[in-house]
Amino acid sequence: MKQKKVPLRKCVASQEMMPKKELIRIVRTPAGEVVIDLTGKKSGRGAYICGKLECFKLAQKTKALDRALKVPVSQEIYEQLARDFISVEEQFLAAKEASDDE
Ligand SMILES: [Zn+2]
Q: Which Gene3D superfamilies has this protein been placed in (predicted)?
């Protein structure tokens, strides 16, 4: 079996370098929306956050997403993202565990 190169990305909240699949991508779409991108395939400017709600909250507090996406992210969007984040967190962790079994 070949060792695959793991692409690393930085979490915008904790500044940790992590394998891409352990991070949740948040994207600013060409239409200017800020959304969670679980597929990693949406076009637009992306930012990564560890798949942990604490990190998301930290990003909200420090406005790390605003800086990473180079767009002001309103409080409502952060709240919407936080809700989405909670709902994808389990899905994300389940997918991660499944891929660890490979
Ligand atoms: Zn983090």
A: YlxR-like (3.30.1230.10)
**What CATH number corresponds to the domain at position 26?**
3.30.1230.10
For residue 13, give Cα distances in angstroms to 37, 58, 79.
17, 6, 16
Could you tell me the distance, in angstroms and rounded to a whole number, from the CA of residue 53 to the centre of ligand 1? 9
How far is ligand 1, taken at its centre, from the CA of residue 24, in Å?
10
pTM, full prediction: 0.80
pLDDT digit string, tens, across residues 15-34: 999 998 889 999 999 999 99
Total domains in the chain come to: 1
Distance CA(97)–CA(83), nearest Å, equals 22
Cα 101 to averaged position of ligand 1 atoms, centre (Å): 24
